[in-house]
Amino acid sequence: MRRVALIVAVLLWAGAAYAHKPSDSYLTLRADGVRLNAQWDIALRDLEQAIGLDTDSDGAITWGEVRAHREAIAAYALARLQVDGDGAACTGGAVDLRIARHTDGAYAALAFSYACPRAPRALAVRYGLFFEFDPQHRGLLRVDGSDGSDHELFTVDQPSRQVDLMATRSWASVVAFWRNGVWHIWGGYDHVLFLLALLLPAVLERRDGRWQPLGLRAAVAKTLKVVTAFTIAHSITLSLAAVGLVQVPARLVEAGIAASVVIAALNNAYPIFADGRWLVGFGFGLLHGFGFASVLADLGLPRGTLAVALVGFNLGVECGQLAIVAAFLPLAYVLRGTAFYRRGVFVGGSALIAAVAGIWFAERAFDFKLLPF
User: How many Å apart are CA 291 and CA 257, to the nearest integer?
Assistant: First the structure.
C-alpha cells in the first residue's frame, strides 16, 4: 500500500508541472500564382536563446520586447530559409509579426510572402533555423497547393525538401506523416526510455523472488503483449485527442510522461506488476497518446486531412517502435542469462532510466533546463 500511495502522490504532483516539448517550428506556404504566402511560427523560448528577447532580464518575455526585436527576429529567421520555385529563387517581402499560442507556449508568428519569377510547379525549400545550437530542432512544413496539402519535416540531417505542387496529395501525405511519426518516436527520448523500461524484463521472469531467464517463445509472447497493450492505448488517446473529443493540457501530459518513465523503471527494481507489465504499458500508453497528439494539434491540420494524418502518423509511430523492439530484443535474449545483463543492463539500466526521467520530471515541474535532451 505504501508503494501504491507513493505512485499516486507522484502522479498528483505531475499535475502542476510544466512541459518541455522538443523544439519545433511550424512553417506554412500557400501557393497563389507567382506568390507564396507564408506563416512561420517560432517559439519565443528558442528565439530568446538565439538572439535574446528578454531585454530587462526578468525572466518574462513581453509583447513589447518581442515587438522591439521585430527586425532582428525577421532577419534571423529569413536568413535561414530559402525557397526556390522551379529552380529559380523566390524573394521574400515585408514581415508582419504577432503572437500565436501552441500547446507548449507562446510563439512569434511571422506572416510574409515570397514572389517567384513565375507560378511554380515545384518548390525546393532549404531550412536552417536553430540547427547551429540545437541539433534536435525540427521544422514542420505544410505546403498548400491547388490539389491539397503536403507535409514535410526538416531536421539537421535533412534540411532540404522538394515539394511537387501538381502532385496528388493522399499517398504523399500518408508517407509524410508516417515519416513524422517515425521521427517523433525516435526523437522522443521519454517515449523510447519508457519502452525500454518495459522491455528490459521481457527476457526474464520473476521466480522465488529472483529474476530468471525466459525461453524464446515466452520472451517473444511477453514482449508482444506489452507492446500491443502500449500500442492500443496510445492509439486510442491519439485518435480521441486529434479529433478534439478529449483535451488534456500539454504541461500535465509531458510531466506525466516523465513520471511514467520513472515508475516503469522503478517497477523493475521493486516490482508491483511483475507479471502484469502490459497493464503498465496500457495505463501509461493512454498518457503517451496525448503526447503524440500534441504534434498533430500544433500542425493546425484542416479537417479534410485529419484521417490521413492519423493513419500515417500512427503507422510511423508503430514502425519506429517495432524497430526499437527488433534492435533490442535479440541482443537482450542472447545476454539474458549473464550477470552482465541481470545486474548491469537490467538493474543498472533501470536505475539510469529512472534517474534521467527523474531529472526530466524536475525540469518540467520547476521550469528549468539541465539536460541537453
Answer: 8
Those residues with Cβ within 8 angstroms of residue 91's Cβ, 6 or more apart along the chain or in another chain:
114, 115
Query: What span, in angstroms and rounded, lies between the C-alpha atoms of 213 and 203?
Result: 6
Give the three-state DSSP class for 183: helix
The CA angle 141-145-148, to the nearest 5 degrees, is: 90
Alpha carbon of residue 175 to chain centroid: 17
Tell me how far CA of residue 343 lies from CA of 42, 193, 201, 218, 269, in angstroms.
Answer: 45, 18, 12, 21, 11
Residue 52 pairs with which residues in a beta bridge?
A: none
Short-list 143, 220, 200, CA closest to 343 = 200
Counting every residue, how long is the chain?
A: 373
Kindly tell me the burial class for residue 8, based on how many C-beta atoms sit within 10 Å of its own C-beta (0-12, 13-18, 19 or more). Answer: exposed
- Interval 326-339: pLDDT, tens: 999 999 999 999 99
Instruction: Give the angle subtended at the CA of 332 by the CAs of 331 and 334, to the nearest 5°.
Output: 65
- Please list the residues that pair with 41 across neighbouring strands: 26, 109
pTM of the model: 0.67
HEC per residue, 327-356: HHHHHHHHHCCCHHHHHHHHHHHHHHHHHH
Which tens digit of pLDDT belongs to each residue from 296-348? 776 666 555 667 778 888 888 899 999 999 999 999 999 999 999 999 999 99
- d(CA 155, CA 49) in angstroms, rounded, equals 19
Q: Is the dihedral of CA 236, 239, 243, 244 positive or negative?
A: positive
C-alpha cell read off for 305: 486531412
Residue 338's identity, in one-letter code, is T
User: Cα-flanking dihedrals φ and ψ of residue 53, to 5°?
Assistant: -115, -25
100 vs 300: CA distance, rounded Å: 12
| Grid cell digits, residue 241 | 485527442
Strand blocks (E) in 33-173: 35-43, 81-85, 88-89, 91-92, 96-102, 105-115, 122-127, 138-145, 148-154, 160-164
Contacts of residue 182, Cβ cutoff 8 Å, sequence gap at least 6: 316, 317, 319, 320, 323
C-alpha cell at 269: 527494481
**Chain center to CA of 30:** 25
If we measure between CA atoms, which residue out of 70, 110, 336 comes closest to residue 201?
336
Query: Which of helix, strand or coil describes residue 7?
Result: helix
